[in-house]
Write a structure and sequence with these properties.
The protein has 117 residues and is of the alpha+beta class. 24% of the residues lie in helices and 19% in strands. The chain has a domain of 68 residues: Beta Polymerase, domain 2.
């Protein structure tokens, strides 16, 4: 993108499966950048969340619903720009949660006296 646009050096284009998912992607990018002290210059489209643009200066992130991404097809629009494709990462398997159970106090053993008949 560096040679093709003065707006930014890189585009990141990603898809979410729902508006909630797209918002979560955007929130995670913003939270991570702020935690690292990196600027977030502008965010666009959060209300509808079918296409959220996060302007990070040299990098602009486009986060789409799948249908919206197919409709606008930015990859075709910027087809002459060098591209890198990344495989979708599978979620890591989490260790099963161990439930904390309250242990019952052990019953005290007592000697029973035998009754004589």
């Amino acid at each position: 993108m560096k040679k093709m646009s003065s707006v930014c050096d890189y585009f990141v284009i990603a898809s979410g499966t729902s508006t909630t998912h797209v918002r979560a992607l955007s929130d995670n990018i913003i939270r991570t950048l702020k935690a690292k002290g990196e600027p977030v210059r502008h965010v666009e489209g959060e209300r509808e969340a079918s296409w959220i643009l996060v302007d990070c200066g040299d990098v602009v992130c486009h986060l789409f619903l799948r249908d919206t991404r197919a409709f606008y097809n930015l990859e075709r629009l910027w087809a002459k720009a060098p591209q890198e494709h990344f495989k979708e990462l599978k979620p890591r398997k989490k260790a099963p949660l161990r439930r904390k159970t309250k242990s019952r106090p052990k019953a005290k053993k007592t000697k029973r006296s035998r009754r004589s008949k």
